[in-house]
Design brief:
The structure is a homotetramer of 388-residue chains. The first copy, chain A, contains twelve helices and ten strands. The first copy, chain A, has helices at 15-29, 89-102, 126-138, 140-148, 182-199, 220-225, 239-246, 250-267, 276-287, 294-297, 333-341, 350-373; strands at residues 53-70, 75-83, 106-117, 120-122, 155-164, 167-175, 205-207, 228-237, 301-306, 312-321. In chain A, strands 1, 2, 3, 4, 5, 6, 7, 8, 9 and 10 form a ten-stranded mixed β-sheet that branches. The interface between C and D is large, with 140 and 140 residues.
C-alpha cells in the first residue's frame, strides 16, 4: 500500500506535525534529518508560506559591500546579504562594488511599476472582439472600480489590448504597494472580468489567463512593458580606474561590447548583460523574495557609451524585477533580518529595495567584465585590443 | 571614514570571523542577528560555497508526494522536498502529483546533455573566419584532447560554429558527469583556445565568451540546442480522471490550449507552459542547485494531444535544465539530506535527479491547469466549453 | 577611367535619357535589351517612382478566384491578380479560394491601423529620460498639432514610450489615409521632435529613428502593436468539405496543428502559419505595393478551433500588413489596372484592399494545409491520423 | 450563377487563352487592360511560372552603380538593376555605392549554403523519438543516398535534429546548385522519409514539414543555421571619407550604433541593420528571384568596429539570402537581361549573384546611415555628437 503524508493536514504547522512528517519521510527513505530540522523559530511562523512543512533549507549568506547607491530611495552605503552556495560569487560582487565605489557609486532609478494578470475574452469573430475592445475603453473607470473592490492596496493603472483571431487579450496593469502582488492582481482582475462579462451586451466568455501575463517566465512583452519594477542602474567610470583595475582601456571595453552584442543577437538571448541572475537570485533568497521570479527578473539590457574624455558610461536596465517588502517570504525570521540590514523592513521600502538590488546587479556586471578582460577569462595575448 | 568588512579575510570561514562580520554589520546597521546565525553546522563547511560568510538564510521546506516516476533512472515513488516561502505552492504540486499518480505516473527521459562555454575568435575579415572554421573541423580531435587535459570528468562532445562579420562564434559542448560544470568547461575551453591560437597559422584573437553560452540567461539557442539536461516528462491522462478532478472534458482542455499558445506567441514568451519555474526553483533550493540557473532552466515547451479515446497526452520539454549532484551547494548539510530523500546523493545520480525534477514540473503544470479550468481562475460560466 | 551613368540626371525620365542609359549599359556589359525596354507607357510616368530609369521588369500575372469575401469594406466575389514567377502558386491559391467559397467565404476585419516613426531622445541619465516621458504625456496635444502641420492626411494617434538606460524611445503612431505613409510620418515626426527639443527645458538630443519603428524588418513589437493594418481573416469550414477535399477529418487537422506549433516555437519563427508571404508578395507586386514591406507584412498568427459539430474554425491574423491605394507604385499603369480589377482604385479603398489580401492569404493557408494532408507533402501511410 | 475562369485550363499559356481570361475579367469587373497585356514575349514562355496567365506587371527598373565588389566570385565593377516603384531608393543605393567605391569597395564572402525541408517524426513517447535520432545518425549515408535518388543536383549535407515531446524534428540541409531549391529538397526529403519509415523497426509516422524549415518566414533558426546563402559584406571606410560625406566622425557613428542596438533588442527586431529588404527586393524582382523569399532574406546582422586610426569597419551578415540563377523566374525575358547585366546568367553564377546582392545591401546601409546622420533624418543640433 502506498504510504502517504496525511493529506488533510497540509496546513498543520505545529512542531508535532512537522516531526511526524519527518518521521514518515525517514521511515520511507531511510534518511535521518539532523539539519533540516534545525530551525530557529517555531514552525507556526511558516503558516501561509508552506504546506507539509518539514524543516528549513539552510543557504549560506555572505555580506558584500559597501555598495554606494545614489538612488531616489536608497541613498548612501549598503551592505548586501547574498544567499548562495556558489563560491566566488560574493567575492566577485564585492569587487564590483569596490570599483563602483571608486567611480562615485551607482545612480539608480525606478522608471516603471506594474504587476499583471492577463485574461483573454473569446467571441464569435474578430469584429465582435474588436467591438469589445472599444467597450473596455469606454468603461475603464467602472472596470477599475470593480477591480479595486477586492483590494485596499492594488490600483488598476491601465489595460493593454492585443488582438488575434476572435480573441481579445487583455493585460491589466496594477500597482501593488509593498507586495509583489501576483495574487492581489489575480483576484482584482477576476472581479473585473466577472463584472465585464455580466455587463457586456454581446456574447462573451473568458479565461483568467491568456498567457500574456507572463507569470514565471520571460517574455519580450515584459522587456517592452515592464513586469514588477523597471529599474535602471547607471555609472560613469573614469578611464583611469578601468585601466588600473582591468588593465585595458575603456575604448577597448567599448569595442568588445559589440562582439558580445552580435553573439547575444544570434543566440536570441533575453539579456545583453553578463549574469544579472546571480545577484538577483542571491539577494532574492536572502530577503525572502519569490526566487521563482528569477525567471522574469533575469532579463536585462546593457547599454554603454564612451565619453570624449574616456569615461565609460555603463548601465543595466532591468525591465521586470519583481520585488516585495511585504508578503510572501519577507516576513520570515532570517529574511526580516536581511531586509533590516538594508533598511528595507517596514512599509514604503519596496523601491528602495529595488534600487539596491539593481545597483548590486550593476556591480556584478562590472566585476565580471573586469575579470574577462583582465585575463581570467581571456587570452593573454590581448584578445581585443591589439591594433583596433 | 568608510567602514569595511576585512577585505583580506573573505575566505576565512571560522566561527570567530563570522561573528566578527555580524558584529560589524550590527554596529553599522543596528540589526541584531538571532536567526541568520542559527546554523546547524560549523561555518568551515561552507568554504568553497561563499565568501564573507555571516550566517544562513532559512527557507521553509515542504514535502510533496508521492510522485510516481517512470524514468530510466528514477523509478517508483518519490517524496519531493520543496523549499519555498510562497503559500499554496507545495499544496498545488501535491495535488498535481496525486492526479499524475492516478494516471499511472510520469514517463520521463533525458534526451540530451551538454554544458557550454562559447568563445569567439576574431579575424581580419569574414573569409579568414570561415577558413578558421574549416581548420577547427579538421583538428577537432586535437582540440578535444587539449580541452580534456584540464579535467578528468568533462568530455568535449562537439563544437558548434556560428558566423557573423569577421568573427567565428564557437559553442563548445561538454558532458560534465555529476557536476553542472560551468567552471569545468570554462577551464577546458580556455585551454583549448590557447592551444588553437598558438597552432593556427593565421592571425587570431579571441574572447572566452562571445555571449552565445548563454550563461545565466535564457536564449532561443538553449531551447534549440540544450543547456544542461534536456528532459521530457510525459503523461497520458484518461478523460474520466480529468472530468472527475477538473470538471471539464479533455477535449475542452485541448481546445483551450490553443488560446494560450496564441497569447504566448504574441507575448514572445520563452515557455509555453504555465509555471515550471515554481517547481524548479523549490527543488533547486532544497537540493543545493544554483538557483540563479532558474534563468535558463525555466524555459519549457508544452505539447498536448487528444487521443481518439479521449485520453489526454500532456508533456513538457525542459530544454535547459541545469542540475548537479556534485559540487556547488549539493554537499551542504540540509541540501545533502534533501538529495538523500530522493536517493540522489552519491555518484551517478544526476539523470535521476533531472527526471524527478521534470516529473515534479509536470505535476505542477497539471495542477495549475486543473485549477484554472475548475473555476479557481476562471469564469463560472464555463469559460471555454459552451458551444464548442 | 571608370565609366559612369550621368550622375546629375538621375531624375531625367525622358525616353532619350532612358535609351542613353541602356546604351551605356549595353556598351559596358555587352547585354542587348529587347524586353526591358518594352514598356507600354512613356517613361515620364515613372517620375517619383524610380531614378536612373532604364526599363521595366515584366512579372507574369495570373488570375485567381473567385474569392468570396465577407468584409466590412470588401463584399462579394473578387478575382485576384497575382504577380509571380513561381509555378503552382496561382493554382494553389485558386484551389484554396474554391474551398473557401464552398465554406461560405472569408470573414475579414481590419482591427487596427498605425504607421510609425520611432525617434529616440537621449539624456544625461535615466531619471531625466523618465521626466521627459511625463512631459510628453502632458503635452501630447501640442505635439500632435506640431506633427500634423506637415500633412493634411496623417493623424497622430498616440505615442508609445519605452525606457532603457538614459534614453527614451518613442513610437509615434499615425493613421495615414490611403497611403502606406512611411515618408509622411517621418516628416511629421521630425517636425514634432524639433518642436519638442526646442520647448523642453531639459537638455535633450534625439535621433529620428531609434530602431523601434521597425521599418523594413519584422519585430515582435510589430506583432504586438501593429504596423500598417492589423487584419484578421476567418472561416468556418464544415468537416464534410474538409474530408471531401483533403481526405482527412477536421479533428486530424486540428491535432496536427499542435505539432506545427511546437516546431514554430522551437525555431523562433515569426509566423505560425504556412506561407502568407506568397500571397502577399504576389498581390503586392501586382497592385503596386512596396514589395520590400513583405519583410514586415509576412508575419502572421494562425489560430484554429474545432467546434463540437466538427466544423473547423481557421483564422490568420496579419499584424503588420502594409498596404496603400495611393502613392508609391499604385499609380503606375499595370498596377492601376490590377487595383481596378479589385475595385480598389480611387480614394477610400485601402481597407478594402487589406481585406482582399488577407482573404487571399487565408485561401493560401487552406490550400497548402490541404496539400500537406492530402498526400502531396506527406507520407501515404496516414501521417497523422492513425490512432490518435 | 458564379462566373468562373475555365478551371481545367490553368496551364493553357496560349495567347488566345490569355485574351479569353482578360475578356472574362473585363466583363466581370469593367476594367480595360491596355498595359497588363503589353508584354514583349509570347505567353507560352511563362509556362511553369504562372497559371491563369493574363499579362504582366511592369515594374520600373533603375540602374545603380558602379558597385565595386571584391568577392571570391564577383570581382570588379557592376551596374545593378533595381526594380522598384519607391522613389529615391535607386538614388540612395547609388549614393552608397559611390561611398563604397571611394572606400575601396565591398569585400563579400559566401560562408554557408543550405536549403531545407524539415520533416517531423512522431512516436509513442520521447524515448522512442530519441532512439530514432540515434538510428538516423547511424544510417545517414543510406538516407543521403535515398534523398539524392530524386535529384542530380541536390546534395544532402547533414540532418539537424531537435527534440520536443514525442517528436523528432529534423532539418535536412541540402546544397542545390544554381537553383534556390525549395521544391528539389522537398522531393528529396520525402523520398528519404518514405525510406526511413519503411526501414525503421519502430512505429513511426511523419509529416513532411514540422514547421522548422522555416519556408517563407523568418526564424531565429535561420539566423543561426542559414537558409539559402549566408553572405557577409564588409568595408573599411576611412574617417576622412565619413566626415566629408556625412559631416560627422566615425567615432560618432560608432557610438550612435549602440543606441540603435538597444532599440532593436527591445523591439525584438530580426535585423539590426536599417533596410536590407529594400536592396534585396529590388534586385530580386529585377533578376527573377522569388520575391516572397524577402520574408526570410530580409534578416541581417550589422557589426561595426572603430579602428585605432579612425577607420570605420562596417559589415552586414545576411544569414538567409535565398537566390538562384536557374529555375523560377530567372529564365524570363527581362529577368535574363538583368542577370546578364550582372554577368550572372548561365551555370555556376549563383554565388556571384549572392555576392553582388550583399554588396548592394551594404551600399544601402551606408547610404541610409549617411542620410540619418547628415541631417535628413535627424535634428540639426548635432543629435549625437555633442559632448560624447
Amino acid at each position: 500500500m502506498t504510504k502517504r503524508i496525511p493529506r488533510d493536514k497540509h496546513n498543520d504547522h505545529s512542531e508535532a506535525m512537522a516531526a511526524e512528517r519527518r518521521q514518515f519521510a525517514s521511515e520511507t527513505t531511510g534518511v535521518k534529518f539532523e539539519h533540516l530540522s534545525h530551525y530557529a523559530f517555531t514552525p507556526e511562523l511558516t503558516a501561509g508560506n508552506i504546506e507539509n512543512f518539514i524543516g528549513v533549507a539552510q543557504v549560506p549568506v555572505g555580506l558584500a559591500g559597501p555598495l554606494l547607491v545614489n538612488g531616489e530611495h536608497a541613498k548612501g552605503e549598503f551592505y548586501v546579504p547574498m544567499a548562495t552556495s556558489e563560491g566566488t560569487l560574493v567575492a566577485s560582487y564585492n569587487r564590483g562594488m569596490r570599483l563602483l565605489h571608486q567611480a562615485g557609486g551607482a545612480t539608480v532609478s525606478v522608471v516603471d511599476d506594474a504587476m499583471q494578470r492577463a485574461p483573454v475574452f473569446i467571441f464569435d469573430n474578430a469584429r465582435a472582439a474588436r467591438d469589445f475592445g472599444e467597450w473596455i475603453k469606454a468603461n475603464f473607470e467602472q472596470i477599475k472600480q470593480q477591480a479595486e473592490t477586492t483590494t485596499s492596496v492594488g490600483k488598476l493603472r491601465d489595460i493593454e489590448q492585443y488582438a488575434a483571431a476572435r480573441m481579445r487579450y487583455l493585460r491589466f496593469n496594477f500597482t501593488t504597494g509593498d507586495a509583489a502582488g501576483q495574487n492581489m492582481v489575480g483576484k482584482a482582475t477576476q472581479a473585473a472580468c466577472e463584472w465585464m462579462q455580466s455587463k457586456y451586451q454581446g456574447s462573451c466568455r473568458y479565461m483568467l489567463s491568456g498567457s500574456m501575463d507572463t507569470d514565471k517566465k520571460h517574455s519580450q512583452l515584459n522587456t517592452l512593458h515592464t513586469r514588477g519594477k523597471r529599474v535602471i542602474a547607471e555609472a560613469i567610470i573614469p578611464n583611469a580606474i578601468i585601466e588600473q583595475v582591468m588593465g585595458v582601456s575603456s575604448a577597448t571595453l567599448f569595442k568588445a561590447r559589440f562582439i558580445s552584442q552580435v553573439g547575444s543577437f544570434m543566440a536570441g538571448s533575453v539579456n545583453t548583460g553578463a549574469h544579472s541572475a546571480n545577484g538577483i537570485t542571491a539577494t532574492f533568497i536572502a530577503t525572502g523574495q519569490d526566487a521563482a521570479n528569477v525567471a522574469e527578473s533575469s532579463s536585462g539590457i546593457v547599454y554603454v557609451d564612451l565619453h570624449d574624455n574616456g569615461d565609460y558610461y555603463f548601465s543595466i536596465t532591468l525591465p521586470s524585477l519583481i520585488v516585495a517588502t511585504h508578503g510572501g517570504g519577507t516576513g520570515l525570521p532570517t529574511q526580516q533580518e536581511c531586509l533590516s540590514l538594508l533598511g528595507c523592513n517596514g512599509p514604503g521600502k519596496v523601491y528602495k529595495l529595488a534600487e539596491i538590488i539593481a545597483a548590486t546587479v550593476l556591480a556584478g556586471e562590472l566585476s565580471l567584465m573586469s575579470a574577462v578582460l583582465a585575463g581570467d577569462w581571456v587570452s593573454s595575448h590581448d584578445a581585443l585590443g591589439r591594433n583596433r
